[in-house]
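Subject: complex prediction, re-run

Hi both,

The earlier run crashed halfway through, so I resubmitted it with identical inputs.
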Amino acid sequence: MGTVLEVRELTKKYVEGTAESKAVDHVSLDVEEGDFVIIMGASGSGKTSILHLLAGIDTCSEGSIKYTLPDEVRPFRSSRRYRQSGGNRPADLARMNEKEKTLFRRANIGLVFQQQCLIPDLTVYENIMLPLMLDRSRKENASREDKIMNLCGRFGLKEHVGKYPSQLSGGQQQRTAILRSVANHPPLLLCDEPTGSLNSAQTELVMDLLEELNKDGQTIILVTHDIRVAVRGKRVLYIEDGHVEGELDFTEHVPNGAGLHPDSCPDTAGTEAVCTIKEREEKLIHFLQERGW
Ligand SMILES: Nc1ncnc2c1ncn2[C@@H]1O[C@H](COP(=O)(O)OP(=O)(O)OP(=O)(O)O)[C@@H](O)[C@H]1O
Ligand SMILES: [Mg+2]
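This time it finished cleanly. Structure:
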């Protein structure tokens, strides 16, 4: 497992008149391939600002955002800077211009927001497959399409693929949006409160889908206020006033199989055992209470 993302001293300042505020304040973090990072923190603490910087939607004031991409992933090939670098990696998003960032994002980052941005005039199938349709040159499109249709079947969308987004529930729309975001197999999926407008049953289904994608190797960073959502991740970063105030890791290294509870979380193969959902909840509540949650 290699490092997908290396963020150093990331800072975003806003200047209003003579006053300067920092929405993101010297954030450093490493994200490994297959990681599932949860970002929590009070409203206004800077969670969305961090995601927007990582996605290249916004521009940082200081710091670096270095992505190390697997060889098979096609980065922003048409970019002059990329060609000039001879294809060297990692790619620093903080040093790219707007066009380069857009190309980079399209090829490498999946984005999911609280409100799904589905195209109303396209069917569910067309929405999901849009990234593949836009890039018909890719050899692996057929196998990606099969994989995505398989996930549609397992997550209750198969019978809805011919419908339009307005004919779906909020949870079905969100699952559609997630599948569209991963259709072209981006190395990183960024989600900003993806369950924020869903009821608890729909939240469970959306998290089941994200957990399944993560088990399949998808690296995810997800912002949430919801403890039941957060416990599905592998670790939680707590943001306060724009900086990382604390981290809670749900994975514990114990000898093979030792200490495994019957309803332990699924990613427990080998020596990396993971505590149960209930244990995670207890740990997380304690962690959050210590921070005045
Ligand atoms: N364009 C802007 N100009 C000035 N300040 C901004 C701007 N955008 C965001 N901020 C400020 O940056 C801080 C962080 O905002 P951000 O949206 O990242 O918070 P958040 O943690 O995502 O909050 P929430 O949980 O409510 O979504 C806030 O104080 C916000 O007011
Ligand atoms: Mg936010």
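The chain has one domain: 3-249.

- K.
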